[in-house]
Amino acid sequence: MRIANIILVGFVITGFSFVVSKGFSPEIPDFFIGGKTHAEQVPYEFESLPSAEEKQFVLPPERIEETVRRKTSFGDFPSFAELVEKHKPSVVNISTSTVSKFTMSPGGPFGGRGDLFEEFFGNFFGQNPQREFRNRGLGSGFIVDTEGHIVTNNHVVDKAEEIEVTLENGSKYEARVVGSDPKTDIALLKINPREKLVPVRLGNSEKLRIGEWVFAIGNPLGLGYTVTAGIVSAKGRSLNMGAYDNFIQTDAPLNPGNSGGPLFNLEGLVIAVNTAVASQGQGIGFSIPIDMVAGIVSQLKKNGKVVRGWIGVSIQKLTEDLAESLGVENTRGALVSEVFSGSPAERAGMKAGDVIIRFQGEEVKESSDLPRIVADLKPGTKARISLIRNGKRKNLNIKITKMETPEDDRAARPAQEETTDSSSIGIKVADIDQGLAQRYRLDWKSGVVVIQASRGGRGWKSGIREGDVILEIDGEPLKSVRDYNKAIDKTNKGNRTRILVRRRGGNVFISLVPENGK
Length: 518
Description:
Blueprint: H1 2-15, E1 69-72, E2 75-78, H2 81-87, E3 91-103, H3 116-121, E4 130-143, E5 149-153, H4 154-157, E6 162-166, E7 172-174, E8 176-181, E9 186-190, E10 213-218, E11 226-237, E12 247-250, E13 262-265, E14 270-277, E15 285-289, H5 290-303, E16 309-310, E17 313-317, H6 320-326, E18 334-339, H7 344-348, E19 355-359, E20 362-363, H8 369-375, E21 382-389, E22 392-399, E23 401-402, E24 419-422, E25 427-431, H9 434-439, E26 448-453, H10 458-462, E27 469-473, E28 476-477, H11 481-490, E29 497-503, E30 506-512
Antiparallel strand pairs: 1-2, 3-4, 3-6, 4-5, 5-9, 6-7, 8-9, 10-11, 10-13, 11-12, 12-15, 13-14, 14-15, 16-23, 17-18, 18-19, 19-20, 19-21, 21-22, 24-25, 25-26, 26-27, 27-28, 27-29, 29-30
């Protein structure tokens, strides 16, 4: 009996194993993968950007299909068979092709004669023909209305010259891109259907709970319709792929070709779009929450592009050390590291070092929450901000503007040639001159540049590196090495010191390790 139980456990575990991808297309980052899905026959109309109330996509109880469950000696397990059969017609396979052109070298792959005849007459007589290579890609998608609109990932169709969509019944259609949003990796396609389509139903990813069962339908590795299942492992994951990272992590097996397909819950509702897999990990896939996707698709369908709100700040994660130096009780919120000149944030009175805890009534729990909240607001909206400055709560009013691509046109200030060796923290700094600006490729001429950081020193341990530009120390702006010396001398060496650093075109706060190392 014990042996039988062991065999049965092995069978159950094996049943949920999956194949890990061994490679990606050279044009697709390691994080990108795929997963398709089918859905039900009640379309969701993407006509306008949904409000907070309109984002409640879950249908009333009488519209929710019941999940069939199978009893085993280990308890109840969900059966996906009926759900898969019902929703497969809503999932599509997507194939793309891109033509690459290049010119052959004279004389073929082993070189030419190299004489004057070839130099002057080779091209004239067509000895250097232009060759074409057709690159093909695979992905997944899902139908969102009866008109033929299909949601997929932007990286699936990016730069594709031809896009072919294949339905579950084998019907093939040529598709065009209605619009795409590279920032969130979402694209909207359109086909002209000759038959009745079966759209998906959208769920509510905000109400999704960690531990819930989910399943994906897609075209992994070009194998055709494939179903995989797992649970929600985490929410709000950031992969450092952009300002709008807010992924749902799942252990449902996902592989290249699943990209753009839907992730379903046990009610048959699409709660995410599969988009990425951790290249170094097994059982770790990532999907874009459908609440975010719905608003993007609405704009793509209406305008062919996404218009986002913008306030003009750079933000970073609030660590425990930075929270202590800022007089903040916890690490909730978004730390403002830079306020752009002439931006709505500057006009509202926002400053570097502010910690935004609420925006337009919505709590900012993590720094990644703020870009999503602001982007959802229409340009012209007047919003209220709650923040903490110098340990005290403060409210500001701000007017949202349209997101552009602002260029830093800050006035350059002549720099004094002066250096100093700050042995107390193990770094050497200098005023920024033209030579140092070119050497470190600096886009900023305020502050002082770090020209040496000793390994093992307080500065190095805190994260300061050569080439960093120190802008502020404990809120005091620096214009020269003299300012730096005064500010560093005034710091309490037994407590954390807050340093604002410019690095690779952006600002970041660093908490300087105290002399006692604690």
